[in-house]
Amino acid sequence: MRICLLLMRTPSSDEDAERMLGILRGAKAQGTEIAVYLLGDGVLCARKGQTGYVGLNLGNAPEKTTVSASARDLRARGISEGDLEPGVEIIEDLEGVFIEDVMERAERVFTW
Amino acid sequence: MPKLVIEISHSPFGHENAYAALFAAMAWVSMGNEAVVLLRGEGVHVGRKGQVDPFKNIGLPPTEKQVTEVLEMEGRVIADRRALQMRGIRAEDLIQGVEVLDSGEISEIMIKEGERFLTF
Amino acid sequence: MVESSKKKTVAMMLFSAPFGSQYADHLCRVAERALDKGYAVEIFLYSDAVHAQMTEQNPKLFFPVGEAVKRLIEKGAVIKSCEICSIARGYIKGELKDGKKDYSSTKVINGVNFCSIYGFVDLLSRADKVLSFGGS
């Protein structure tokens, strides 16, 4: 199964992080593919050096997990590629890539 | 049968979210569809019983009645166990029929049943 | 451009008002790209999101949601607004006139339609995929 997550904000607590990202653990157990798309404030999740509930905590994620961030939103927020966790793909047309993934490949989509 | 998972993370009354979510859930199940309402974070207060005439007291509709109607129409209403514990809400405080599940179990339901997912 | 003998439909719910957050911006951008790629788009404006339907929006410094909504309609998006939310916020009266609901208003962008919660349920049940913006 392929799941798309669209994050448009950051978690505000560890409880909130569990809501938004707990699905990564559930998906890992089932061998699912996850595509995480970061839009708007969601791009802040991908900054490196964050601790606790802040950040994506991809240690819980399935092996086949990809993370993509909106280039436009990164630029607006003064975040460069070097500021991001390794492996985050920066995409100019994140909205277009996201919607095609959702419509053509994903079986589930969750947005926050 | 089409399935819908609705997540509520706001307590009733302070925000419209809980009411709006339950209104959608009621309409969905009334059409013979399957719905799962997840109560997470502050949304677990939606599962508590004992509201006293909210319309008379604060001019807002009773979400407890909405939850009861969703359950009567065979929708599921599930509260997050850890969120309940953090807020000191016990099983006996809940509206009859509200289930309690762990976060992991809730994630499994989201993956299995979440053909359509709305968050409020 | 996606080629398909049957257009796939994405249903989107907006739950937040424009300008106070970026959710309306995100929805408009995703919806526009979906239309560009050949998908059918149906949008439901719920709760404070009905403010996205207001005519005469004039944001000097913000993403122009009103213009985006008009463009979505021109490109074929179906936009339905919650009837009771719109009545509550003064956009329409929704009274019966000659046996039909009167949704006439000078305050609503041309092309935005109104429906009850059952209209939203119908939209959700027909869609291939459902996206939720705001509310969380």
Q: What is the distance, rounded to the nearest whole angstrom, between the alpha carbons of the first and last residues of chain B?
A: 23 Å
Largest interface: which pair? A-C, 20 and 22 residues
In the CATH hierarchy, what is the architecture of chain B at level 2?
3-Layer(aba) Sandwich
* Number of helical regions of chain C: 4
Question: How is the largest sheet of chain C built, in terms of strand order?
Answer: 6-3-2-1-7
Helices of chain B, by number, come to 5
**Could you give the distance between the termini of chain C?**
32 Å
How confident is the prediction overall: mean pLDDT of chain B?
A: 97
Order of helices and strands of chain B: EHEHHEHEHE
Which residue ranges of chain C are poorly predicted, with pLDDT under 50 across at least 5 consecutive positions? none
Largest sheet of chain B: 5 strands, parallel
| Lateral strand order in the biggest sheet of chain B | 4-3-2-1-5
How many strands of chain B? 5
Q: What fraction strand of chain B?
A: 15-25%
Structure description:
The complex is a heterotrimer of chains A (112), B (120) and C (136). Chain A contains three helices and five strands. Chain A has a five-stranded parallel beta sheet with strand order 4-3-2-1-5, sandwiched between helices. Chain A has one domain: DsrEFH-like (Hypothetical Protein Ychn, Chain: A), CATH 3.40.1260. With 112 residues, chain A is α/β, with parallel strands linked by helices. The model of chain A has no long low-confidence stretch (mean pLDDT 93). The two termini of chain A are 20 Å apart. Chain B has 120 residues and is α/β, with parallel strands linked by helices. Chain B has one domain (3-119): DsrEFH-like (Hypothetical Protein Ychn, Chain: A). Helices cover 38% and strands 19% of the residues of chain B. Chain B contains five helices and five strands. Chain B is globular, with a radius of gyration of 13 Å. The mean pLDDT of chain B is 97. Chain C is built from four helices and seven strands. In chain C, α1 (23-36) links the parallel β1 and β2. The mean pLDDT of chain C is 94.
